[in-house]
Specification:
Layout: H1 4-24, E1 34-41, E2 47-54, H2 61-82, E3 90-95, H3 98-114
Parallel strand pairs: 2-3
Antiparallel strand pairs: 1-2
């Protein structure tokens, strides 16, 4: 059973190579603007859970996941050629909502900065 450090190195390598492949080798228009946010490999090296996001956000979530599912065989084979493992984990893709949540929080904070709330009296005067 691989150590935690080895699993992390494998996951990072999968993320790096897969990100490069999505930019340079995958020509499916559904996958334009897709980025890998995280990769987790289980202890048995049976599965690699790949978390993705896209510039357009959840508007295209299903379309992107379908594109990745249809390319899974090609992606897994290409990854196995570039990353030496006895058996290569099966790829499972998941949508990562973290970037959209962060963007939403940023917009909320920006709106609060633009429209600061006034004091409890409603007149903005804090003098007593």
């Amino acid at each position: 059973m691989p150590s935690k450090q080895r699993l992390d190195r494998i996951a990072n390598r999968i993320r790096e190579v897969l990100s490069e492949m999505l930019i340079l080798e995958v020509h499916d228009p559904r996958l334009n603007g897709v980025s890998i946010t995280d990769v987790h490999v289980d202890r048995e090296l049976a599965y690699a859970d790949i978390y993705i996001s896209a510039i357009e956000g959840q508007i295209r979530e299903q379309e992107i996941l379908q594109g990745l599912e249809s390319a899974t065989g090609f992606l897994r084979h290409s990854l196995s050629q570039r990353i030496e493992l006895r058996t290569f984990p099966r790829l499972r893709f998941h949508w990562d909502p973290t970037p959209e949540r962060a963007d939403h929080i940023e917009r909320l904070l920006a709106s609060l900065r633009q429209n600061p709330t006034t004091g409890a009296s409603g007149n903005g005067n804090n003098e007593n």
